[in-house]
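[Q] Does anyone have a clean C-alpha cell version of this?
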Amino acid sequence: MKKNLHILICLEQTALLDSTKHERSFMESHLHLKFFGIVKEAEEYLNFIYHEVVPLSLMICSASFSETDGVDLIVRLHEHSRTTDAQKILICKQLDSDKILRAANHGGLNYCQLVPWQNGVFVKTVIKILSEYVARFVDNTLPYAFLLNENTILHHIRNQNPTI
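[A] Here you go.
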C-alpha cells in the first residue's frame, strides 16, 4: 500500500514520545509517521508538508512545551489551507480548560487526551480519529480498512455505493 497519509507527533516529554512511538509502530509500514520533541522541528516539517501533494492527516501535540505553547501550533495548523482538514489531538498533563477551549475554538481540535493513559487506549482513539479522516477526505478508502476501523471505512464505502 502506498504511504499517502502523514501523521505528525510533537511531544516534548521523551518518555511520552517514546511510548507513543512504540504504540504507533504497527502503522509505520503504511503511514508517514514523524516524531518531534521540539516545536521548531515540527514547524520545519510542516513547511515541507505545505508544499507536498499529500496533506497532513493527523497531528498529535503536547499542550505545553518549554519554549512555546503547543496550542499555538494547532491553531497555526488549522489556519493554513493545506492543513486545516488535518485531525488534531491535544495531549495535556492536567486539565487546562483555557488551552483546550482555545484549541477547540481556534484550532479545530478533534480530541484531548490526558496523561497518563492506559496502554492501548490511546491508540484506539488515534485509529478512530484517523478512520474518520480517511472516510471524509481520502478517495480510495478500502486499503485502509485492515489498518484502521474497518466498520467506519466499510460504512463509508457502502454509503458511496449503495448497490454494494
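[Q] Thanks! Anything notable?
[A] Residues 156 and 162 are 10 Å apart (CA to CA).
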